[in-house]
Amino acid sequence: MRIPRLYCKQVLSPKSRIVLDKETSHYLCTVLRLKANRDLVLFNGELSDTTGEYQARLVEANKKAAVVEIGEFTKTGTESTLDIELACCLIKNDRFDWLLQKATELGVTSISPIISEFTDVKHSVKLSKERLEKKILHWQQIVVSACEQSGRTRVPIVNVPTALIDWLTGDMNRVDEKYVLHPYNAVPFSFNDKQKAETKKIILLVGPEGGLSEEEIAIAHGQQFTSVSVGPRILRAETAPLTALSILQYQLGDFT
């Protein structure tokens, strides 16, 4: 029987008991219909030198305030050695949601939604403060669910949508490599021995459906971004970043 694996915002420590929040309690006891004494796995997404998860047991199956007993901590090896910020221009809602989910599965550390010249104004999140907060909360929940499914223990941060020019002129110190996906006048990913040994922090910038403008590419180049291509075909805005992330993890991260 599959053991449910859940993100928990609370402090977790062995041999302690916690009361889960109403939403999580409802999910366990009403949606999954779990009864007392069922085993669980919990993680809280903390950034630390030791990442892992906790064995747990449901001791009170209350749909409004379930009680869980925390067991042993187990180290896991599911996190990448790379720290990747994916800066992706906003695309249609369902496709952007899918991109967030898959990028999380591929190990990104943070995701920065970007508004560029060719970003469709309907999807540029020109919303009231309240609606914007709800949108970011929705995105963050997608990321959390992807972590629960994929076995990750660190939850990526979803940043507030930012205009590309403002984002490009922000603080990007202590970044080892900066790449911008560009289907024209770009070279394939290529890594020398020094890069393979030392690259830990990467920024990957990806445009919207219409791509980035030549002016935006030039500004990125001025900020020491390297134009790279992921192959001879033009990929969709949600496919290209996932292809690039797979290459980065294979060459520099998960399989090194």
Can you describe this structure in just a few lines?
With 256 residues, the protein is α/β, with parallel strands linked by helices. It has seven helices and 13 strands.
Order of helices and strands: EEHEEEEHEHEEHEEHEHEH
Structure classification? alpha/beta
User: How would you sum up the global shape?
Assistant: elongated
Largest sheet: 8 strands, parallel
Q: Residue ranges: pLDDT <50 for 5 or more in a row?
A: none
How many strands appear in the DSSP assignment? 13
Rounded mean pLDDT score: 91
How much of the sequence lies in strands comes to 15-25%
- Put simply, the count of helices is 7
Radius of gyration, in Å, reads 20 Å
Determine the fraction of residues in helical runs and give it as a percent range.
Answer: 25-40%
Distance between the termini: 34 Å
Describe this structure in words.
The protein is of the alpha/beta class. It is 30% helix and 25% strand. The protein has helices at residues 22-31, 93-105, 129-150, 164-168, 193-198, 214-222, 240-252; strands spanning 5-7, 17-19, 39-43, 52-60, 67-75, 83-89, 110-115, 157-158, 162-163, 177-181, 187-188, 201-206, 226-229. Strands 6, 7, 8, 9, 10, 11, 12 and 13 form an eight-stranded parallel β-sheet that branches. Strands 1-3-4-5-2 form a five-stranded mixed β-sheet. The two termini are 34 Å apart. The mean pLDDT is 91.
